[in-house]
Request: fold
Amino acid sequence: MRSFYFKKKLKILALACALLMLISCAIPSLAVDKDSENGSISGVPLSSNTYYVPDDYAKIQWAVDNASAGDTIIVRDGTYTENVDINKPYLTIQSENGAEVTTVQAANPNDHVFEVTVDYAVIKGLTIFGGTGISKAGVHLGSDANYSTIVDNRCGYDDSHYNYNGIMFSSSHNTISRNTASYNRCSGISREYPSPIWSISENGCIT
Ligand SMILES: [Ca+2]
Reply:
């Protein structure tokens, strides 16, 4: 008798599992399916337009606002006074001729100069300073900004051109290479929270 009930219970359990599997297959996943190898998000190919600042847009932020995931924004020589929010994934922002001749200076010292809140951002070849407010940074990668590439930047370089923190991140799988971050008030390159997987190499920091 006992064995009969046990078998019956097992049968019900198996049926419930099968039903659960069926339901979970029928409900489409709400998560964004990122597939960087195939260059697509949820099967939609990434955009590949290139915009120039200031030719196409006078400000980097305006270029970001008008770009789509996958686009590249090239910043020509000059000094740009703004705080940039990168809120679209897969955007590349890079100088045309390197950090020596391309500067982004905070318009508001109490905001990060670059604030990344999405995955797969690339920031390359810029001098970045002026994020001097408490806990602000030249480049800030929030907890949702994984897989970012931050290379060849100069985040603070003398006593007049610095941030509170040079580069600060709380996300993982980032590549942070060949940057210099000097004269910043609190730290050069730092983690806000434990971020187990990352690559930091060949940076120069004097804090
Ligand atoms: Ca901001």
